[in-house]
Amino acid sequence: RGGEMAKLTQLIDNEVFRAYATYATIVLLKMMLMSLITAYFRITRKAFANPEDTASFGKGESAKKYLRTDADVERVRRGHLNDLENIVPFLGIGLLYALSGPELYTALLHFRIFAGARIAHTFAYLIPLPQPGRGLSWAVGYAVTISMAYKVLKTALYL
Amino acid sequence: RGGEMAKLTQLIDNEVFRAYATYATIVLLKMMLMSLITAYFRITRKAFANPEDTASFGKGESAKKYLRTDADVERVRRGHLNDLENIVPFLGIGLLYALSGPELYTALLHFRIFAGARIAHTFAYLIPLPQPGRGLSWAVGYAVTISMAYKVLKTALYL
Amino acid sequence: RGGEMAKLTQLIDNEVFRAYATYATIVLLKMMLMSLITAYFRITRKAFANPEDTASFGKGESAKKYLRTDADVERVRRGHLNDLENIVPFLGIGLLYALSGPELYTALLHFRIFAGARIAHTFAYLIPLPQPGRGLSWAVGYAVTISMAYKVLKTALYL
Prior knowledge:
Three copies of one chain form a homotrimer.
Chain A: H1 2-13, H2 15-44, H3 61-64, H4 71-98, H5 104-126, H6 133-156
Helix pairs in contact in A: 2-4, 2-5, 4-5, 4-6, 5-6
């Protein structure tokens, strides 16, 4: 057992893998933050999706009016879904990329740009910035993921 | 090749990794169950999103009326999306956590509480239970993920 | 460091793991394609979700009319969400399955059928094909994931 654990620890000791672990955790925490921001807007805008969430505002019609959509809530939710659509590919392809033996410098470049692009995307979505701010930050993250996918397929392709 | 396969098998032989594999699979199967529950409500409530799904109910206007949203269907769909938003971070951060060399006892505690919280969240959403039942079960899973993220960053941080 | 990197490279040298890496990357790229198809329909149908996305069409009321839903855009978005709901379990369970020591032939069979089913599902959704085309392709991918989950739990179960 000691030997196995050592081997696992070696994985997390590898610098490329540590960089992946760091940036994957950062973008996932950033994505998780969207839940809190959604909750914040739901409570301050009084806009809920479930009847049981409005029960504290009273019964019947007086509570029902808070079962509604709100532009700010929907905006955060779209940002959250966009995170899912883009961070899931980064998680999967990034892990395989980290295991495909890239140079540390190149790997760090990919991870840092992706994390920066997704953080910029969130600000662009929530402020919101005029286009093409949000579009560009989305495209940068997308391109980084494609670049990692290319390296994975070049290294590992086995159909 | 025999040697490599042995090494892979060693990963799955590690007890912390086996615990991760078990609980990750359980929460993913639970999430997949939401698709079946959605299908069940779509069929019993006759509420579909695509015209081609209503073709068996006849043609034209008679089928068109089944292209509608239904409160129960939408509730399951919200639960499914909430699963995605919370189980994706658990999958990624939990894997890195399992590789960061935690104590078996501590790791099991994290995995068991997370899985229990997400199962409780599903019941709270679908029954539905009065708040703060659903909110608390959500928060417990969220806190467990944050705790694992802290361990990952403490062990692996490489910016 | 050389030794650690060698060990990582061994992981990606394992044939089952290479097959997982290949098919996981393929289905993730396919899922990422949905973003481009959504953007294509949003632009050609002039149907946007954010006011800042319509600014190039002019100001005030003239731009506001492009803040609308479009049947084709919504269809692609449903396909994208269905991808997330099904490809996330494949990523997680498939990785654990690849590490659980399956026969190469069996593993390839699972990965190929899953990837084929999801590609068929996308065509069935976007063309769209009459049912049960989409339903069947969805069910095949679902069944493959359940089969891999069974192998993972049989090999690794540690509650």
